[in-house]
Design goal:
The protein is α+β, with helices and mostly antiparallel strands and 863 residues long. It contains 30 helices and 22 strands. The strands form three sheets. Strands 8-22-21-20-9-17-19-18 form an eight-stranded mixed β-sheet, with helices on both faces. Strands 1, 2, 3, 4, 5, 6 and 7 form a seven-stranded antiparallel β-sheet that branches. The chain has a seven-stranded antiparallel β-sheet with strand order 11-10-16-15-14-13-12, sandwiched between helices.
Length: 863
């Protein structure tokens, strides 16, 4: 069995060849639900109630012989459909980008470089590196393996993992055989690496794999309906029932009181279009899809849509230290051997004393020849720097015979080497100092002395590992590491620099009312040192994994409220920590990267897997995938989550508010026997503004300046809280009162139906645009946003706003001053003084809300 293949000697495919095969053979993916086509989206749009109502009105105008009215109304149908199609296509593109990102990752060798790519981009002939927790990207032949076992239950139904061996050197590659059975050199697409490492060459991809032949389809990002979507769907259904009842009543009242049933039917349809808020479900879908896409632009993949909603309500972030708070780029800085301490940072250009040569030598022998682990890479780098010209490196002349892997019972691993002359076995062990001390059978005095050295190194912020050696001459190796007679060599302290963005991100969490808890396998001293560097507080109290084992659930729930550091914790204990926090009522976000982290990630409200160093199992269990493993990206995502919910609430409030005056001006003239103000053509025109405003404009709105100074929102808070509903209805009623006053005054002065309608509709357009501007922020006034240079609240940072405002004003000018359009809309000519009245009245309708913002802000300052 080949287990020492040097990846540095493997070239792999060239990028040019890989791209050629990808183009000719297709992506490595199975048949799945396809992206919706343009025509499929168009058909769904045509089935929306608002479009059915518009088509019905157009048909009635055709029946009445009003060809121009019918054509302009049907023209609006296609125009609004174009806007909706653009929004839907944008949503589909965002989801497609998320599907690409969510494809299982594969570590390949191309052009002699190791790189991580999407599994769907793997091609036949690629050399792939397999590690514990990975999903195999395609059917492959093993070239090299170390204690490799694979879960093939996806294909065989057998839950027991099977052993894998590599093909022998110089052996002819056999054809791939069906799955099942031990000691075969084949691994199959979709199966899971349970233990060990390996190197394989891809033999079949996509539908040509065993999984493809079965015909199963795997999808990781789905457009699942969220709680928010269900909530808005129910709301729309209830309003639809109310709208139909009112419309039927209007048709009957109009027909009985005026004797014109056809016009009554048009009035009823116009009222139905006015009342029905069909934008609600569309807005929720667009916000969640584009929100997930925006988060992905910050190197965070939202695999599950509900996570986008939940992000803004997180109260606790539980994070791993290594690779998340730090770079996961280890370097050896201190060594302890033969009672001496050596600080490499103080002797960078000096030769390494002979006392420490053996410590470096056996740390390398206890590691993989071509290491993936950052610590093992640090040992190899140390050896290359200091022992390159000595007899302590054995790259070519020693043979690896056996490996004793790390286990939950013993946190140490050993490599058995055969010397060049083949007479002796040399065993090198490394691992947690306590485990190494156990292997060396330390007495209490030795343990006390070792503990003092470990504490000193850990307090300096170092990760500490122990190294030991043993010799063996019998031909039959023992089954356990404990059966060797190990001798303790020394301790190695490794430093992992803290990411420079973490300290600011921690402070931002505290300002936002979010607790941060560090969970690490390191010693308490190491964890406290890192905590001090990043500004984590308080750090005086630490709970260790050993204490967790003896602590009951009630005591843990009590202590976890005030403790922020959990040290020497094994992955299995993370689930208990998550559950304790949940029992206290916290909304928990948890990071993880290993197979054993999957239960905790699933249990957390927001599971966050590491995209760089994490396993596929962890990623599949998580809601979010951190593509760059950086803690600050989590905080950025929380901020984006708050922004998404904030803007969604504003969009919904605006949508509800603007429907109040439209419905009111459709209903009141009928009840008071006034001329109709809003005909179907007017409502269609209004939807040209409302549809893009409630989706595109508000979705693109930058976050409020104080968004991370607020406490986390209550996850049970409905989108339409009593306050939100109250303010939205008050905004709508305020505009309605102004419109009724304008219309009634015009009629009272004898200006006629066309004058009154033109004045009222123009006022409604100005009020609608003002409503958009005022709802962009519930903290800042329109004037403050217009003159601000801050990117957070500046109007200039939202170009969609200006397109909507400018387009609405240009269209309104055409309608008022092009005779053919003025005739179609049943308007009269408006003079400059009339426009001044409309502008003043429209702005006046929302002025009260601007003063409310100032009053609330002053009240908060006083409080």
């Amino acid at each position: 069995m080949s287990n020492n293949l040097d990846i540095n000697t493997i070239s792999g495919l060239s990028e040019q060849e890989a791209n050629y095969r990808l183009k000719n053979e297709g992506f490595n993916e199975l048949p799945a639900s396809k992206q919706r086509s343009f025509f499929a989206i168009a058909w769904e749009v045509l089935q929306e109630p608002i479009f059915l109502l518009l088509v019905a009105c157009g048909g009635i105008y055709l029946f009445l012989g009003e060809i121009q009215d019918a054509l302009i109304l049907l023209g609006f149908v296609f125009f609004i459909m174009g806007i909706t199609l653009y929004q839907e296509q944008k949503t589909e593109h965002a989801l497609e980008a998320l599907r690409d990102l969510s494809s299982p990752r594969a570590s390949v060798i191309r052009d002699q470089q190791q790189k991580r790519i999407a599994g769907r981009e793997v091609v036949r002939g690629d050399i792939v590196i397999l590690a514990e927790g990975d999903r195999v990207p395609a059917d492959s032949l093993l070239l090299s393996s170390t204690h490799l076992t694979v879960d093939e239950s996806l294909l065989t139904g057998e839950s027991v993992p099977v052993r894998k061996i590599a093909v022998e050197e110089n052996q002819e590659y056999p054809p791939i055989s069906p799955p099942g059975g031990d000691d075969l050199p084949f691994v199959y697409s979709g199966t899971l690496i349970v233990q060990g490492q390996g190197l394989c060459v891809i033999k079949a991809t996509g539908i040509n794999t065993e999984l493809g032949k079965i015909g199963k389809a795997l999808q990781t990002v789905t457009t699942e309906e969220t709680l928010l979507q269900r909530e808005t769907g129910e709301l729309v259904k209830k309003l639809a029932v109310i709208a139909i009842a009112i419309c039927v009543a209007i048709i009957v009242i109009y027909g009985i009181t005026r004797g014109n049933w056809l016009n009554g039917f048009l009035a009823g349809l116009a009222l139905a279009m006015a009342i029905l808020p069909n934008e609600f479900p569309v807005v929720v879908t667009i916000f969640l899809a584009l929100g997930a896409w925006r988060i992905s632009q910050n190197r965070v993949l939202a695999r599950k849509m509900p996570a986008v909603e939940t992000l803004g309500s997180a109260t606790v972030l539980c994070v791993d230290k290594t690779g998340t708070l730090t770079f996961n780029q280890m370097s050896v800085t201190q060594m302890f051997a033969a009672g001496e301490m050596y600080n490499l940072s103080q002797h960078q250009r000096e030769e390494l004393p002979e006392t420490f040569h053996q410590l470096v030598e056996f740390s390398i022998l206890a590691s993989q020849r071509n290491p993936f682990d950052p610590m093992e890479k640090a040992f190899r780098e140390l050896g290359n720097n200091y022992l390159a010209n000595t007899e302590h490196l054995h790259d070519d002349n020693w043979k690896l015979i056996r490996e004793y892997p790390l286990s939950a019972q013993l946190l140490a691993m050993s490599h058995v080497w055969q010397s060049a002359d083949g007479t002796d076995y040399i065993i090198a062990a490394k691992g947690a100092p306590e485990a190494i001390a156990d292997l060396c059978h330390f007495n209490p005095t030795q343990l006390q002395q070792l503990s003092e050295q470990i504490t000193a190194m850990a307090n300096a912020g170092l990760r500490v590992l122990g190294v030991a050696r043993a010799y063996f001459q019998q031909p039959n190796l023992p089954t356990e590491q404990h059966d060797f007679e190990f001798q303790f060599i020394g301790l190695i302290g490794l430093a992992d620099p803290v990411r420079p963005t973490v300290a600011d991100a921690i402070q931002e969490c505290y300002t936002a009312g979010i607790q941060v808890k560090m969970i690490t396998g390191d010693y308490p001293g190491t964890a406290q040192n890192i905590a001090r560097q990043i500004g984590l507080t308080p750090i005086e109290e630490v709970i260790t994994g050993t204490e967790l084992q003896t602590m009951d659930d009630a005591e843990l729930s009590r202590r976890i409220k005030n403790v922020n550091i959990f040290a020497r914790v094994v992955p299995q204990q993370k689930l208990r920590l998550v559950n304790a926090l949940k029992n206290n009522g916290d909304i928990v976000a948890m990071t993880g990267d290993g197979v054993n982290d999957a239960p905790a990630l699933k249990s957390a409200h927001i599971g966050i897997a590491m995209g760089g160093r994490g396993t596929d199992v962890a990623r599949e269990s998580a809601d979010l995938v951190l593509l760059d493993d950086d803690f600050s990206s989590i905080v950025t995502s929380v901020k984006l989550g708050r922004r998404i919910f904030d803007n969604l609430k504003k969009a919904m409030a605006y949508t509800l508010a603007v429907h109040v005056p439209i419905a009111g001006m459709s209903l009141i003239p009928v009840l008071f026997k006034w001329p109709l103000v809003l005909l179907p053509i007017h409502i269609a025109f209004l939807h040209l503004i409302i549809d893009p405003a409630c989706s595109v404009v508000f979705e693109a709105e930058p976050p409020e300046e104080n968004i991370m100074q607020r406490p986390p929102r209550d996850p049970k808070e409905p989108l339409f809280s009593t306050r939100t509903l109250g303010l939205a209805v008050l905004q709508g009623v305020g505009i309605l009162l102004v419109l009724v006053a304008v219309f009634a005054t015009a009629l009272y002065r004898g200006q006629g139906e066309l004058d009154a309608r033109a004045l009222t509709f123009t006022t409604l357009i100005i009020a609608n645009l003002s409503l958009i501007l005022t709802n962009r922020s519930w903290s800042y006034t329109i004037w403050e946003m217009l003159r601000s240079h801050s990117q957070r609240i500046s109007s200039l940072s939202n170009m969609a706003l200006w397109w909507v405002l400018g387009g609405a004003l240009v269209f309104m000018a055409f309608v008022l001053y092009l005779p053919i359009l003025r005739h179609l809309f049943r308007f009269s000519y408006l003079h400059p003084i009339d426009l001044g009245i409309c502008l003043t009245a429209g702005i006046f309708s929302i002025v009260w809300f601007e003063f409310l913002k100032i009053w609330q802000r002053n009240r908060q300052v006083i409080t």
